[in-house]
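Q: Mind making up any chain with structure tokens?
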Amino acid sequence: MHYQRQKFEIVMRQLESLKPSLRLHKKEIEKRFAKITHTPNHPPYASMIQMAISELHEQGGSSKEAISTFIEAEYDDLPIPHTSLLSHHLHKLVTKGEIVCTSANCYTLSVEISDSVHKLKKGQKPIEEV
């Protein structure tokens, strides 16, 4: 966090040198900067996606939009690029074989994962098997 604060101060000095009136808005800028750079308080995307697919339990799998809507309803502290991150993690989970993409671009849990996914409560991390 200290690094982010230093970076913010450098950016502010540069902006103030270009436009001195920004000093008046420093608190508002600082508040927005803090919101953009903070660490979200939610489980890893893989866990959220698996929980969404498991909870939605849709015939033929869940669409990316349905998964996104479920995650947005469960967690209010999602990063700004949520849609891009969701796409990335869906692709990554398909590549790893943890979820399956159907021909209709819907996602289901793979057989091994669906047997081991527990109903995760908001903020609970998955149990790792040894």
